[in-house]
Amino acid sequence: LIGVPGTGLGGVFYALLVVWMAVREVGLAARGAGDPKRWPKIAWLAALLAAIILVLATEGWLLRLVLDALSAPADPISAAPPDTSAEKNSQIAVMGAIAPALAIAPFVVLAAIVAAIHVARLTVRPNPIPLPGETTEARLGAFAPSSQEASNSDPVRLTETRPAQLVRDRAA
Amino acid sequence: VLAVGLWDAIVASLAYLIVLPLMAIFIHPLFLLGYVIDLPAVAIPVIAKGIERGELGRVLLSLPCFLAIRLVNSVFLLRAVWSELVLGKSLLVFEKGH
Q1: A83, B75 in Cβ contact below 8 A?
Q2: pLDDT-derived band of residue A156, with 50, 70 and 90 as boundaries?
Q3: Is B45 within 8 Å of chain A by CB?
Q4: Which of A23, A24, B9, B31 lies at a CB distance of 3.0 to 4.6 Å from B24, suitable for a disulfide?
């Protein structure tokens, strides 16, 4: 189950996961592997997501009203110059420029993190010590040493389990 | 999921404790809204669950506390990251305090 959202990366992740759940379920149903029991759960999460987006949109609209009120002249009827100073207007302009960037940033950062994880998955060598009941070859996958490499390395290390390795390390 | 959670925790902690106060001081006090701006996003699923459990009152009381505890959590998280990555004191070893 996906967790509690916020407005940062977690919120974007939450929203994308809900969308992905629906897309995946549609794909499974098209192949005849769908489970109708999952739809109420997906509908409930989608309803929560819709409510969150609606409330955040309302919040953004209210904020926009506040910003517009702050940048408007104090007395719009008279021909008097605006009450706001140039410095104040520039501050509000900065806020107006930052807001769209803050809205886009989570998507960009999320894409970068997912890409970095996939790059790391393809390039970082996993721990060669297998878990109990797991073979070294299964753990290393594509990184598994060739038969020549295996014959040159420590045979105990390739066959022992993690607890055995820990006991040996502690004894040393 | 872990990478997203860790990133969010570190960046949000830095934002709450450093970036937002500086922006509020040097750009505009409205940046202080950043402390509460995601409250609706957090509140909606929590309120929905609270209604389901018959604990709406407790949820409504807890929401303001969440804002406070989030700041405290930010301090603890940054201390943990500093300890783990900078000082090299791993949190994998539990040291009993008494």
Answers
A1: no
A2: very low
A3: yes
A4: B31
Q: Does B30 touch chain A (CB under 8 A)?
A: yes
Tokens found for residue B15: 């934002």
Helix (H) or strand (E) holding A138: helix A136-140
Mean pLDDT of B46-67: 91
pLDDT in tens, A101-139: 767 777 788 788 888 888 888 888 766 666 666 666 665
CB contact under 8 A, A117 and B33: no
pLDDT of residue A157: 47
Model confidence pLDDT, tens digit, residues B14-42:
888 898 899 889 888 888 888 888 888 88
Smallest Cα distance from A112 to chain B, Å: 11
Are B46 and A4 within 8 A, CB to CB? yes
- Report the C-alpha gap between A165 and B92 in whole angstroms: 18
Count CB neighbours of A14 within 10 A. 22
Query: Which one, of A70, A64, A9, lies nearest residue B3 by Cα?
Result: A9
The ipTM of this complex is 0.74
Q: Which residues of A touch B7 (CB under 8 A)?
A: 9, 109, 113
Structure pTM?
Answer: 0.62
DSSP sequence for B23-61: HHHHT-GGGGGGGTTTHHHHHHHHHHHHHHHT-HHHHHH
Please name the residues between 77 and 106 in chain A that touch chain B, using a CB distance below 8 Å.
91-92, 94-95
